[in-house]
Amino acid sequence: LQSAQDSEGYYINTSAFNLFECRQFLIAMGGNASNASLATNYIRTADALCDETKYVRAIQTYYAGLGVILARVRDWIYALKSDEEQRTANGVPPTHVAQEDFVRVACDPDMNIIMLIVSSILHRAGNAHLHLCQYSEACRDYNSAQTYRSMRNKSHDLTLNDEDDMLQGRISNNLACALSKCGLLDEARSEYTRALQVKQGILEMWHKRSKQSATSIEEDGDMPLVSDITSTFHNIGLLRVKCNELKKAEKAYKQSLSLRVKKFGLDDVGVSTTLCALGGLYYQQGQYDDAFRAFKESLRIWQKHVGKKNDLVTAEHYYNIGLIFYQKGPVSKARASLVECLRLRKQLCGDNLLPVASALSLSGMINTMAGAHEEAASQLLEALEIRQQADRNEGHDLMTIQLSLGNVYQLQNKFDDAMDCYSAILSEWMGRFGSDHAKVAQVLQSIGSAYLAADKYDKAKTTLEEVLRIRRLLEPQSVEMAETLDSLGRVLYKLGDTEKAGELGEEALEVLKSAAKDNSEPILLSKVMKNLGDYYQDVEAFEDAIDAYEECQRVLVAWHGEDHASLVEVLNEIGVTRFKSEEFGVAKYSFEEALRVMRLPQNGAQDTVIFPTLNHLGHALYKNNDLDLAAETYIESFNIQVSIITGDANDGLKEFGSKLSTIKDRISSIEQGSDQLKSLSGSLGSIANILRYIGLVIQDQGDFEAALSANKLSLSVRLCQPIRDHSAVALMAETIAISEYKRGNHSNALDYFSQALEAKKAVQGDTIDVARTVNNLANIHYSMGNLDDAMRLYSQSLDIKRICLGQESDEVVNT
C-alpha cells in the first residue's frame, strides 16, 4: 500500500518504482542501458536497506543513485553546447549542473522525466531522514523534491502526469509530517491540506475520465491512491491531537476509517492502525469504554494478519488495554493484559529493554493498586535498574518509577525506605523546578501520606498544608487538589478536628466531581467517600455516613468486582454504622459479607485481620438475640486470637486456661518498655475483652456457672497484662463480685469488690464510682455481720458522695 509508519504512528508515503522501469527513463538516459541499470540498482538497493531499517546506508545509496542521474544531466547539457561558446579549452566537461541547466532539462520532452526521477529519489532520501528523526534534513530533501517536480511543469509536452501528481501528494504528506515534528504546526497543516487536495483531485479525475470513456477503473487500480488519501487523513488526526484539537482529530480518524473500510474491508491492517490511534485519542479524553472497543477491534484485525506469531505490535495493544483497565477497572483485567505485554516484550525486545521497563513500571503500579505489593516492588525495582543502565537523559522516567516505588514501600509499612525514595526525588525536583511546581507538590503529597500512615500527624499536617498551598496556586480545580484535600482532612480527623476534616472532605468531593468527568478517578473517589463516611459516623450523622460508605462500595465493586479485599474495610464500616443505628440485622449481613470476602483464597487474609470482624459479627448477633451463633462467633474469634499469641491452635476456654502460665513466663522474658511487650499486652487485652462478651452470651443462655468461669478467665488475662488496664480490671472484678454476691458467695464477692476498688483507686481517686464500690463492700460486710467494717466503709462512701453529689442527693440520704 506504499506507506510505512514512523515511531509516532505517522504514515510516510513511499514512492512507486515504476518510474525507473518505464521506456521514457531509458530514453532520458540516452539509451544507455548500463547507466540506467546502474541508477536503478542504486535505488533498488537503497529501498531494500530501508526495509532493513538501515537508513544511514540507504541515504548514502540514494545520493549515489542521484549522482548517476546528475552525471547524465551534465553530459546531456555538455553535448548541447557549442564548441565555441561553452566547451573548455581542453575539452573537459563542466563539473556541476547549474539551475538553468535543469530548466532546459525540464523543457525537453525526452528529458523532463529526469526531473520526476530526481524528485522521487529526494523523496526517498527524505523518508530515510524522517525515520532517523533528522527532521530538518528531511524537510530540505522534500522541499528540493517539490522544487524539481515543479520545474518540470514548465514543459508543454509532459507524460506521466498521474505519477507526477501522485508524487506531489506523497511529498506534501511527508513534508507535513516532518514540519509537525519540527514544531511548525501551521505549516504542517497547510501542507496536509495541499496533499489532500492533490490526492483527492487525482481520484476525482480518474473517475471522471472513466465515466467519459465509458470504461471502469480496474478493480484494484485506485487502491494505492485511496490508501494514500486515508494515510493523510490519519496523519491529520495525529496533527490535530498535537494541536489539542481533539474533536477535529476524531473526525479525521473517522474519515480515514470510512474510506479504508469502504475500499479494503473491515479487516484491513490499516484499519487496525487507525483504530489504535483513535483508541489513544479516546483514552486521552477519558472515554475509556470507547478506547477499549477501539483497541480490542484493532488487536483482532492485527492478530488476523499475523496469526499466532508473537510481535511487538501485539504487545503494544496489550499495554494500551492494560492502561485502560488501570484507569477504569477491573484491575484484574489490567494485570492480565500487562502479563501478556511483558511476556512478549521480554521475548522480542532483545537488547533494547526500555519497552520492557515501561511495561514493568505500569505493571508495578497496577499491582500496587491490586494490593500485590511484593510483586509491585519487584517490578518497579527491575524497571528502575533498566532505566539506570540505559544511560539516557530520561531523569523524569527514573523519578516517576522511584516515586511509585516509594508509594509501594509506604503501603508495606517500610517507612524509612519510602522516605529515602521521596527525599531523593524531592531534592532532584526542587533543584530542577523550584519550590512552587506541580512535581514538587506531587512528591510532597507522597511524603505527607507517608507521615499519615506512620501516625506522625503533626508532620503530615505541616507537609500537606504546603502541598495545599502549591496546588491552590497552580491547579485549584484538579484531581491532585482533591487528593490533597482528602489527605489533609484525614490528618485533621486523626488529630481530633472532625468538623474541619468534614469540610475538607466535602470540598475534596466537589473538586473531584468537577475535575474527573465520568468517574474517571474511581480509586480516589472511593477513598474520599470512605473518609467522609468516617467523619459523618463520628458526629453520629449515620444516614449520611451510610450514603457515603455505600457509594464507596459501589465504586469499588465496579472497579475491582465483588470479591476484592479492598471491600472489607468499607463493609465493616457499614456494619458498624448500622449497629450504632440499632439496625442489627443489616449490620450482621455487612459483617458476614466482609468475612466472606476476606476468606476467599485469592485474598489470603491473615487471622489478625479476620478476628476483629468476627468480634463485630458476634456483637450484631448478640444484639439480634441469635445467642447460639453469637457464642460460636465469639469463640472462633477467641481461638484465633489465642493462636496468634501462642503460635498453636486453640480449642475453647479450658485449653486456654492451661496456657496462661506459659504466657506469664513469656512476659517475664521480654524487655520492659519494648514494642514487643506493648503489642503482647494489647493482644491479651483483646482476648480478655472477647471473654467478657462470651460470658455475657452464656449468661443470657442461662448457664450462669459457665458465664462466671468465662468472666474469671477474662479477669485472669487482664491481670496478666504487663501494661495493666485498671479500668478493665475494675469492670471485670466488679462483674464477678456481683455474680458471686447473687449466688450467696459473700466471701468471694468481698474479694472481687476489693480488687475492683483497688483498680479504680489506681486511676480515679475519690470519684462517685469509687464511692459506690466502697458502698457495695459495706453492704457485703453488713450482710456477713461485720458491722464495724460496714460502718467504716459506709462512712467513707458517705464522705465521698457528699463531695461529689452534694448533701441533698438521694444517694447521700440513702447511705
Verbal overview:
- There is one protein chain.
- This protein is an all-alpha fold.
- It has 37 helices and 2 strands.
- It has helices at 23-28, 33-51, 55-80, 99-107, 113-131, 135-152, 161-181, 185-212, 223-242, 246-264, 269-284, 288-306, 312-328, 331-348, 354-370, 373-390, 395-411, 415-433, 438-453, 457-474, 479-494, 498-515, 522-538, 542-560, 567-580, 584-598, 607-623, 627-646, 652-657, 660-668, 675-700, 704-720, 726-742, 746-763, 768-783, 787-805, 810-814; strands at residues 3-5, 11-13.
- Strands 1-2 form a two-stranded antiparallel sheet.
- Helix 15 packs parallel to helix 17.
- The model has no long low-confidence stretch (mean pLDDT 88).
The secondary-structure class comes to mainly alpha
Give start-end ranges of low-pLDDT stretches: none
- How would you write the strand order of the largest sheet? 1-2
State the distance separating the first and last CA atoms: 106 Å
User: Percentage of helical residues?
Assistant: over 70%
Provide the residue-averaged pLDDT: 88
Radius of gyration: 41 Å
The biggest sheet amounts to: 2 strands, antiparallel
Label the overall shape.
rod-shaped
Q: What count of helical segments does DSSP give? A: 37
Write down how many β-strands occur, each being a DSSP E stretch of 2 or more residues.
2
Strand-residue proportion: under 5%
Key traits:
815 residues, mainly alpha, 37 helices, rod-shaped
Give a nutshell description of this structure.
By secondary structure, this protein is mostly helical. The chain has helices at about 25-30, 35-50, 55-80, 100-105, 115-130, 135-150, 160-180, 185-210, 225-240, 245-265, 270-285, 290-305, 310-330, 330-350, 355-370, 375-390, 395-410, 415-435, 440-455, 455-475, 480-495, 500-515, 520-540, 540-560, 565-580, 585-600, 605-625, 625-645, 650-655, 660-670, 675-700, 705-720, 725-740, 745-765, 770-785, 785-805, 810-815, and strands spanning about 5, 10-15. Strands 1-2 form a two-stranded antiparallel sheet.
